Amino acid sequence: MFKKPLASHKPWSPLKNSERRKLAEEIAKTFAVSTELARLLVPDGILTSRGITHLDESVTLYACHLTADLPAATPYDPLWFRIGKSSNDLLVPSVYTLLRYPALLSIIVTAPMVIDKLAEGADLFRPGVNTSCLRRLPPAYTEGTLVAVSSGDDSERPCAVGQLSATPEKLARAATGKVVITLHAEQDHLWMSGTQSEPQRIALPTLEAEAASLALDDSVQPEEVPEALTKEAAVEPAKMLPVELVDALLEQALCYAVVNTLPNKSQFPLSASVVYSAHILPARPAAHADHIAQIDVKRSSHKTLAKFLKAMAAKDLLTLKEMKPEALVLSINKDAAPLKELRPYKTMAKLTAQARASEAQEAKEEASASSISVTDVYKPHGQTVAFFEKTSRSKDPLTAAQARKALIDYVDKEKLIHPVDPKFISIDPLLGQTLLKSNENVDAIDRSDAIHRLLQHCQKMHRVQLLGGKTELRKGTPTTVKVEIKARQGRKVVSIITGLELYGFLPERVSSELQVACASSTSVDQVFGSKKGAMEVLVQGDQSKTISDYLEVQGLPKQLVEVIPLQRKKK
């Protein structure tokens, strides 16, 4: 939506308090977060404006300064945008908002190289998506559900936001097609309209956003935590944890938080809900992960957060100030008696971090299998065979770095560094046979020249990793996929793609997906005059930019795409 600047944009105006409250209520309901968190996501001083995108779509923007005392000329950071003119239209968080609270949306992990393309308006396609991420999405998600996209380099940092193109089940089964329709990404024009700096995160963590709405007195009934957040099935009565055990585990979690995660004195007081959601809940023991939803103050003997903290204050773990609408934790006591019985254990926070690290690793591995790589290699040949048999004990192709290492190791082992100039290598009989021409008679050679000669005398090859992870060894230099722009009848032009089969692409599938991406008619035919099996994809119009972007998103490196522009006839 924002790969180009807005076509028009009205001046910013303050959002009325009543409208701000309505917006916070909408966020709380739509994204299943607490009222307190929703208010933090719509800060004081938020502004609004209307605009028209380059696609002629109406959009309402909400923005503000996220840091106090900024110069008046500092741009506002866009926090939310609404696609359409009606207040019932889709409300979307910006990347700035997702960076403030990454848990707002489920995250899909993709390869780092794909992220740049999203900012240019590309959608996220199936080959670049980690299957495990799709399988972890809640089954209730449908086409159009908002999700965030992150890079495998940092799976917890959202870089883009978009809508699912189908249900997670269908997407996980599919091998191709769109997964996320991109609405906004870091480095697009909406992002660039702000300060372009990463905002400070809100303290409330992932799973526990709903905890902020816990009743702090007996008169308020506790709400059910949404299934999409807890991912917990209904628990049968026979499997319920005893109330006494829930009490003990919550106290254990508080003790762990007091010792390990709660901040120093200068950052107190803290609200009761922040202490509970940001420190106690993540410190619950991972040994009870199967029943984690039951380790909740609502299922304890205390029933409310206020009563639980009051009981902990009686044990001298903390100092509590009871007030409306919410109690405050004024301080903690790291010398309290219950802390002496605390032993190290694995927390839910550590378990979640390990799961995310594992997911990021899976994303990298799957991205590798979903991308194409080409590596230059050199096969021992002719006069170099004897050298590599002695040094590497192999006739297999080597990379330039491996061949260089073999030469340097041999020189060091045989003590062939020139005594006068270390940049030179003394020539022994084996190196003479390997590096020198038949009519050459020298006793030393420059080290870099020696490496160059060694590679030159090998057979040049390249190793290709195809889509799906299959590897092939090929002679010579890599062949490019050609995108040639040709003239047809009159002033019409077409884009013809050849060489797709060399890297594992199915021409029929490419044709089908480019028909949508280019909004043009496409066809597949055999390349005229070529051997059987060589196919070409024809796309109406000069689509070289879209085709190049599509191939790169599919995993084909830029250097393997050769665009041949239209050859104009000389007058």
From TrEMBL:
Residue ranges of domain SUI1 in the record: 481-555
Pfam family, one: SWIB_eIF2D
Molecular function terms, GO-annotated: translation initiation factor activity
PROSITE patterns cross-referenced by the UniProt entry: PUA (PS50890), SUI1 (PS50296)
Gene3D superfamilies, per the entry: 3.10.400.20, SUI1-like domain
InterPro entries referenced in this protein's UniProt entry, alphabetically: EIF2D, eIF2D_SUI1, Pre-PUA, PUA-like_sf, PUA_eIF2d-like, SUI1, SUI1_dom_sf, SWIB_eIF2D
Top-level taxon: Eukaryota
GO BP of this protein: formation of translation preinitiation complex
Name this polypeptide is given: SUI1 domain-containing protein
Organism: Mixia osmundae (strain CBS 9802 / IAM 14324 / JCM 22182 / KY 12970)
Gene name, Swiss-Prot/TrEMBL: Mo02509
